Amino acid sequence: MATFVLVPGAWKGSWAFEAVVPPLERAGHTVHALTLTGLRPDDDEATAATANLDTHADDVVRVLDRHRVTGATLVGHSYAGMVISAAADRAGGRISRMVHLDAYVPRDGESCWSATNDHFRGVFAAGAAATGHTVRPPDGGDPRRRPHPLASFLQTIRLTGAVARVPRREFVYCSGWEDRTPFAGLRSRLKADPEWQVHDLPTRHDAMHEAPEAVAALLLAG
């Protein structure tokens, strides 16, 4: 049986995967759905202000350490593609599969800020105007969302190359929001890379809410 570590994207917590976890567990797998530092309900403003990409990668590695996980499947949605890439690079070969669910797949030296498009750079900048260190959630959406640490969007990732040795790497492209997606070019790049498997889902960005059965089925297909 597999061990899944599910990492939510910006502004979200473990609840983002609430409809995906049950079918994985019913299939006999172990599932750890994370809420990253600075986004937990009891995190204070100072915690959110100081959290960055390294903090979030360490959150994932701590789960692996605490539960003595090897052969893990890391699943990252959106921003969390940065997180699972950084975590896999420092996990010492304990990752067997990575699934970037409509998520960034960074190269060394990139940041979420540099890898995204002008639309989302505008969202980040406008959302950070109130505090300068956290980004408020865009209007609408789930009320459980919390301000996201700005530093995690801005920090560049440093990769040693170990992440490229993860045996199975997959990218899921959600095609239902092509007017705003920052991932169209990434899909084309990975489609041409024989080391990646690319899947398409006809959903908008939050596929875990819109089509949780399809997301779970894709993960179980591994």
Overall description:
There is one protein chain. This protein is of the alpha/beta class and 222 residues long. The chain has a single domain (3-220), classed as Rossmann fold (3-Layer(aba) Sandwich), CATH 3.40.50. It has helices spanning 21-26, 45-50, 53-66, 80-89, 112-115, 118-127, 150-154, 184-191, 207-210, 212-220; strands at residues 3-7, 30-33, 72-77, 95-101, 134-135, 148-149, 168-174, 196-201. The protein has a 6-stranded parallel beta sheet with strand order 2-1-3-4-7-8. A two-stranded antiparallel ribbon has the order 5-6. Strand 7 (168-174), helix 8 (184-191) and strand 8 (196-201) form a beta-alpha-beta unit. Helix 3 packs across helix 4 (80-89). The radius of gyration is 16 Å and the shape is globular. It starts with a strand and ends with a helix.
Topology:
Blueprint: E1 3-7, H1 21-26, E2 30-33, H2 45-50, H3 53-66, E3 72-77, H4 80-89, E4 95-101, H5 112-115, H6 118-127, E5 134-135, E6 148-149, H7 150-154, E7 168-174, H8 184-191, E8 196-201, H9 207-210, H10 212-220
Parallel strand pairs: 1-2, 1-3, 3-4, 4-7, 7-8
Antiparallel strand pairs: 5-6
